[in-house]
Amino acid sequence: MVRESSNLLSLKNTDLELFKGSFLHADDLRKALAGCQAVVHVAANTSQWPSGYEHYKKANIDGTRLVLEASKKAGIERFIFVGSANAFGPGSQENPGDESSPFTDLQHQSGYMRSKHEAQQLVLDFHRKHQFPATIVNPTFMLGKYDAKPSSGQMLLMAHGKRLMPCPAGGKNFIHVEDVASGIVSAIENGRNGQCYLLANENLSYREFFGKMQSVCGWPKQLLPLPKPLLNFAGQAGTWYEKLSGNPAKLNAINARLLQADNYYSPAKALSELQLPQTPVETAISDALAWFAEHGYLRK
């Protein structure tokens, strides 16, 4: 299901039946779901700015509620909600977060993370109330082909061709997007109703991640550590700008703190129950860059 205005580059040369409409319109959903057995609900506002919760509520929460209700009416047999690892609290590299890690106060201050956590709770509540066959998968930071927007791959585009790349103190869990796709298919076939599965792979500091990127393509040439006070000051300046201008800033106080956090997660449950593949992050970087180069995203 795609919007009339959707960028369909990622779907080019695929053998798909496309339904054009909006998942925010009940009648479109009714028509799109006719004759379907399973739903994979991927649609969401994933932008990191503006940071206000209201910016995300319509798509991420109200939209999820509409898709759940329409799917129940359509007699859907399997419902997979693609959430976010950010719906769970992260951990350290030695003790990464898992599906039992509580959502944190810092995450709640991010409108995006709060909306994904609340949407997940909506799905779990709907499952319990209606015995609805819903399963949740929670990808971490995805890299690979077909990133037409681009979304996570923007990190690679920012660093490619840079002789000096600013590097914050924190880190993330990274996974190949094709491993996530395999995890979703496995969740349809093997996932337990009412359960969440972190689709995760390698926990890397930003320094470690850019080191892997350097080994793949030679960029960025050199990393410049970003002192925490400097990054915090820049984030606070962005927040002041947002308040004074009413416009979103690409860096604000909350995003600055999140950049410095250890956002590490464990894939143990998905490995055990979904047989989640674990493709090396270097392969994900290489695949993403090759796709970006083929489609003209890389700077000359």
From TrEMBL:
<dbReference type="InterPro" id="IPR036291">
    <property type="entry name" value="NAD(P)-bd_dom_sf"/>
</dbReference>
<dbReference type="InterPro" id="IPR001509">
    <property type="entry name" value="Epimerase_deHydtase"/>
</dbReference>
<feature type="domain" description="NAD-dependent epimerase/dehydratase">
    <location>
        <begin position="12"/>
        <end position="195"/>
    </location>
</feature>
<dbReference type="GO" id="GO:0004029">
    <property type="term" value="F:aldehyde dehydrogenase (NAD+) activity"/>
</dbReference>
<dbReference type="GO" id="GO:0005737">
    <property type="term" value="C:cytoplasm"/>
</dbReference>
<dbReference type="Pfam" id="PF01370">
    <property type="entry name" value="Epimerase"/>
</dbReference>
<dbReference type="InterPro" id="IPR051783">
    <property type="entry name" value="NAD(P)-dependent_oxidoreduct"/>
</dbReference>
<protein>
    <recommendedName>
        <fullName>NAD-dependent epimerase/dehydratase domain-containing protein</fullName>
    </recommendedName>
</protein>
